[in-house]
Amino acid sequence: MIAYLSGTIQKILEKKIILNVSGVGYLITVPAPILATLTEHQSLELYIHTQVREDDISLYGLPSSDAIKFFNQLISIQGIGAKMATDILSLPIDQVKMAIGNSDTVILTSIPGVGKKIADRLIAELKDRIEIAQSAQAYKGGLKKQTEEAIEALLSLGYQRSEILRRLKAAPETLQNSEEVIRYFLTSHA
Fold it and tell me: Which of 81, 100, 128, 129 has its CA 20 to 30 A from that of 42?
């Protein structure tokens, strides 16, 4: 079982890298935010989740032991495999943990491939098992419960969920109801 690799990035592919470790190239899937920060010939250390199947051995890499621990918690949930866990980690880990801790299905369902059932399962099974950073307790930059109605209304107006979430991240925490959230979105959109 491979648990950790340190080497030089030989090649960056779509969603994967080839990591040269003493002349051996390992094909490793990494989440998009990590992939976006990498360059070829850069030194890199990754904690690895090794997935062994009858016809395939796949490696998934994350930058810290805490990240790989959270990845393993995700894949322990029925219906979430390593590929979906990698997609979930396309959002910052603290944001995903805060969404789970605050039972925020809006953020979780904004992840491609995560529907309402999977989001509910994530919350039910991980809410009491994950550690949330103290600084993130205020849920700054996240979405509050009252924004769910506003998001649904904006979706019905034809806006894309990703655009809505991106713009509402900067919303002041003083917004009290869905009407104020919608007004903020429409004025910041102009």
Answer: 81
> With contact defined as beta carbons under 8 Å apart, do 164 and 185 qualify?
yes
Which run of H or E residues covers position 189?
A: helix 178-189
In terms of pLDDT, which residue wins out, 137 or 83? 83
Q: Give the C-alpha separation, 22 to 178, whole Å.
A: 56
Helix, strand, coil content of the chain in percent (nearest 5): 45, 20, 35
- Rounded CA gap, 25 and 35, in Å? 17
Cβ atoms 63, 52 nearer than 8 A = no
What's the number of domains the chain is made of?
A: 3
pLDDT score of 88 more than 60: yes
Same domain, 55 and 71: no
Phi, psi of 113 (to 5 degrees): 90, -10
Q: What is the pTM of this model?
A: 0.68
113-165 pLDDT, tens digit per residue, is: 899 999 999 999 998 888 765 434 444 444 455 577 777 777 778 877 777 77
Residues 127, 97, single domain; the answer is: yes
Q: Residues 129, 73: one domain?
A: yes
Give every CB contact of residue 187 below 8 A, 6+ residues apart in sequence: none
